[in-house]
């Protein structure tokens, strides 16, 4: 980087002093400073926005008054754009009539009909967050099959904060050993590894739960093979569309990949960031969480005060209406393709093809930063994100295009990459981020020690 480039870079950088002060204060009051570990201090460069005061469309404003293009979109939950007018109008109309009642509301029926019409499933249970419905899916499978075991792919980082899953991660502190005994891991994309789990635990596995896909397509026929294997072994197949729902297809990636499961879980984007999640699937399975037939064992499936709360349901109805015809999914894919092409052009121009990789589906892409040895490197990734953020683009490593993102946001991101690339090149040339990275490298959420 030339002296002129360095001077221009410093002049255009955003400052985050109030954001950092906010972070110090909130950590004194909230463990980790956030209600989601992936939003914590250790998951971002030290120079990052915090104390978010406003979001509109594809942009957010922080405690310092900085306006940044947002590609993270609320942990992928904001599917239309921040403060979408149509969704917010539906929410405002609903809350004027009250938000929670002693019996089921008309809105609960309308939301269930809208959701099931879109998904083509038989029954649905709503809750406020994803962990509630994934755990309920596992409980339902255990009740249906009268088995305890659960199989999960080790490549998929998160299904629930409950013991049955967290016990499989490095963050198993505080979880009794006996709670870890019935969840086993296999390799996504490798049917043989799942066969091995079934062979090792014959007649014990209630369900296999996985995301349909992360960022790159599974082998041809893989999801169909998993379903067939589950059914041969007497287990249920559960697809978690928490992230992929309404991004890789309507209602989700399973439809695009022509895969079918017994149960599905949805959340995040189905309500454009408002709190709502759903467990849905086959009627014969879902119904064992109901009130019939008389004399059958009662399965305490999901019982949450706010599962029928009007705000999330109204937001869900309005959001599903927007996505129903598939046009938004096609639009976001086009936006992602254009963004990827423009960023890859910047990367090539700076000669960094070997160190910056953008991969995944256009509507759900990831950024990988590699160090001097060509392998993914947390320090170099943190440095690159630090520079992108300093030039007005909030990026944590995942791009979530929405219909609110347009040419202005793509151009701003292209410019931020153009400013960040020389800094990365300098770090690679000197074989270290020393003197360039402010603060420590980002760390994984799931780790043994703080």
Word description of this protein:
The chain has 2 domains: 3-70 and 327-430, Aspartate Aminotransferase, domain 1 (Alpha-Beta Complex), CATH 3.90.1150.10; 85-323, Type I PLP-dependent aspartate aminotransferase-like (Major domain) (Aspartate Aminotransferase, domain 2, 3-Layer(aba) Sandwich), CATH 3.40.640. The chain contains 14 helices and 14 strands. It has helices spanning 3-12, 17-29, 85-95, 106-119, 130-145, 163-166, 191-200, 222-232, 253-256, 283-286, 310-323, 327-349, 378-390, 407-430; strands at 54-56, 59-61, 67-70, 123-127, 149-153, 183-186, 205-210, 236-240, 263-266, 277-281, 356-361, 364-369, 393-394, 398-399. α12 runs parallel beside α14. It is globular. The mean pLDDT is 96.
Short description:
The protein folds into two domains: 3-70 and 327-430, Aspartate Aminotransferase, domain 1 (Alpha-Beta Complex), CATH 3.90.1150; 85-323, Type I PLP-dependent aspartate aminotransferase-like (Major domain) (Aspartate Aminotransferase, domain 2, 3-Layer(aba) Sandwich). Helices cover 38% and strands 13% of the residues.
SSE layout and pairing:
Layout: H1 3-12, H2 17-29, E1 54-56, E2 59-61, E3 67-70, H3 85-95, H4 106-119, E4 123-127, H5 130-145, E5 149-153, H6 163-166, E6 183-186, H7 191-200, E7 205-210, H8 222-232, E8 236-240, H9 253-256, E9 263-266, E10 277-281, H10 283-286, H11 310-323, H12 327-349, E11 356-361, E12 364-369, H13 378-390, E13 393-394, E14 398-399, H14 407-430
Parallel strand pairs: 3-13, 5-6, 5-7, 7-8, 8-9
Antiparallel strand pairs: 1-2, 2-3, 4-10, 9-10, 11-12, 12-14
Helix pairs in contact: 3-11, 4-11, 12-14, 13-14
């Amino acid at each position: 980087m030339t002296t002129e480039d360095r001077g221009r870079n410093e002049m255009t950088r955003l400052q985050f002093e109030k954001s950092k002060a906010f972070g110090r204060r909130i950590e004194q009051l909230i463990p980790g400073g956030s209600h989601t570990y992936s939003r914590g201090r250790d998951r971002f460069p030290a120079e990052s926005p915090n104390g978010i005061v406003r979001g509109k469309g594809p942009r957010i404003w922080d405690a310092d008054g900085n306006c940044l293009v947002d590609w993270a979109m609320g942990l992928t939950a904001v599917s239309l754009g921040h403060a979408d007018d149509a969704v917010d109008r539906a929410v405002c109309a609903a809350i004027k009539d009250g938000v929670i009642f002693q019996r089921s509301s008309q809105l609960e029926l309308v939301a269930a009909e809208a959701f099931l019409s879109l998904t083509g499933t038989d029954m649905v249970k709503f809750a406020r967050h994803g962990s509630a419905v994934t755990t309920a899916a596992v409980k339902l499978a255990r009740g249906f099959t009268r088995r305890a075991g659960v199989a999960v792919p080790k490549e998929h980082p998160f299904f629930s904060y409950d013991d049955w899953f967290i016990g499989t991660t490095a963050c198993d502190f505080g979880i009794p050993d006996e709670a870890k005994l019935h969840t086993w891991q296999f390799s996504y994309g490798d049917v043989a590894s799942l066969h091995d789990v079934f062979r090792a635990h014959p007649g014990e596995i209630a369900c296999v739960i996985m995301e349909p896909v992360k960022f790159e397509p599974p082998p041809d026929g893989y999801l169909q093979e998993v379903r067939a294997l589950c059914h041969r072994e007497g287990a249920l197949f559960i697809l978690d569309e928490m992230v992929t729902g309404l991004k890789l297809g309507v209602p989700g990636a399973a439809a695009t990949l022509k895969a079918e499961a017994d149960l599905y879980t949805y959340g995040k984007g189905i309500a454009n960031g408002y709190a709502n999640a759903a467990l849905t699937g086959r009627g014969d399975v879902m119904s064992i969480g109901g009130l019939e037939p008389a004399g059958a064992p009662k399965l305490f499936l999901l019982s949450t005060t706010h599962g029928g709360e009007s705000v999330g349901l109204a937001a869900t109805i309005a959001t599903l209406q927007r996505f129903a015809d598939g046009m938004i999914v096609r639009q976001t894919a086009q936006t992602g393709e254009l963004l990827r092409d423009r960023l890859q052009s910047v990367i090539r121009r700076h000669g960094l093809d070997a160190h910056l990789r953008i991969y995944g589906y256009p509507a759900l892409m990831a950024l990988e930063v590699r160090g001097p040895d060509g392998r993914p490197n947390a320090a170099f990734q943190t440095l690159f994100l630090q520079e992108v953020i300093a030039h007005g683009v909030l990026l944590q490593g995942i791009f979530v295009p929405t219909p609110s993102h347009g040419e202005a946001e793509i151009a701003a991101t292209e410019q931020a990459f153009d400013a960040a690339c020389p800094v990365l090149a300098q770090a690679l040339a000197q074989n270290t981020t020393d003197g360039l990275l402010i603060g420590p490298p980002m760390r994984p959420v799931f780790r043994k020690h703080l």
